[in-house]
Amino acid sequence: MANPRVVADTNVLVAAVIAPAGVCGRLLTAALDGRWTIVASPVLLAELSEVLQRRKFRRWISADEAAEFTAAIRQVVELYADPPNPPAVTADPDDDYLVALAVAAEVSAIVSGDPHLTAPARELPVTVLTPAELLASLDD
After folding, report:
1. For residues 27 and 122, what is the distance between their CA atoms, to the nearest angstrom?
2. Under 8 Å between Cβ of 38 and 77
């Protein structure tokens, strides 16, 4: 996959903060190196900010660092408008906006660690890769 454009689920970006040397951290580094483009939307960035501000993440990142990380991510993503009224296509209604964003932005894939997306009960209109699968495709 040559410099793909991919919607990164919030869980991938959060995992990059928690384990910078892990698969998701290495994926983020690859994006910063220009090997793939993170596609996001205002809703996705708001979710990232909200999640990283939760108390349970203080052991990895301070509230100020979380705000700085979200601001830095906002600067490197390809920002795409939030699709209105995403159709119900996933087992988790909260994930439907990711699929709608991916379709609207015409990306190569969604990268997620969420089993609702990585092991869907029905076909989705976009490819969903695990972080390890995306990282392996970048190494090919």
Report:
1. 27
2. yes
Domain housing 105: 5-139
- How many structural domains does the chain have? 1
Cα 120 off chain centre by: 17
User: Which of these, 15, 33, 30, 6, lies nearest to 69 by C-alpha position?
Assistant: 15
- One-letter amino acid at 113 equals G
Per-residue pLDDT of the chain (140 residues; tens, 9 = 90+): 568 999 999 999 999 999 999 999 999 999 999 999 999 999 999 999 999 999 999 999 999 999 999 999 999 999 999 988 887 777 777 888 998 999 999 999 999 998 878 876 667 888 999 999 999 999 77
Q: Which two tokens stand for residue 19?
A: 């384990």
The CATH number of the domain holding residue 72 is: 3.40.50.1010
Signed CA dihedral, 30, 31, 37, 41: sign only: positive
